[in-house]
Amino acid sequence: MAMDESVRKAVLGAVPSLRAFAISLCGNVDRADDLVQETLLRALANIDSFQPGTNMSAWLFTILRNHFRSEYRKRRREVEDSDGHHAESLKSQPDQYGHVEFREFREALAKLPSDQREALILVGASGFSYEEAAGICGCAVGTIKSRVNRARTRLAELLHVNSAEDFGPDETTRAVLASGGE
Amino acid sequence: MEAAATRSKRPNAKPAKLGRDVQARLGQQLRAMYDEVVNQGVPDRFSDLIDRLEGGGKKDPQ
To answer: Touching check for A95 and chain B: CB below 8 Å?
Structure first.
């Protein structure tokens, strides 16, 4: 396969963010890296369907997201997998992001419905516009907006955050929980 | 008036809207968590994979 240098660069450049997205979707680093690998294989096998000049990153995210969704549905039929299960799997692997600092935040994130979680990550962390996120998720822009809003509201509830004062000056989620938690 | 009508059409009773400051703080946490992974860069596994696929057509030069 002859690969254009610019394509190679764009694909590799998207990998760090794809990994972060994949981890947030499946809550497991090893599975996330497999997901990224399968995404790259699919993408490169279908590189001709990528339209030059469009957003490579968004294209790759779409492939990853669709692949995850179909895998997830398959697994769900096999095992009763739920968002609660996802949260549990995070708990058993507290250090998978490398630091425990974000543990409570990650656990709260894992409790969100998956469509809200992915919308929040795409817009709030991956840096996609609402329009791009809607394209990636195959839904209307308004749907993405409402999912992001609901995700934020629910996160604030789960973390017991009612105002910015609930965050410490050098905030960690732990501090948030200590000041506002049960 | 139009705005009020739109608002009343919302099906769910909404919880109090989050202040911008809270949204901003949640956003900071989210990005910090995400960037922790992003900052790990590209693991060798993936650059090797691309190299392998790229070389797939021409094979290793003997």
So the answer is: no
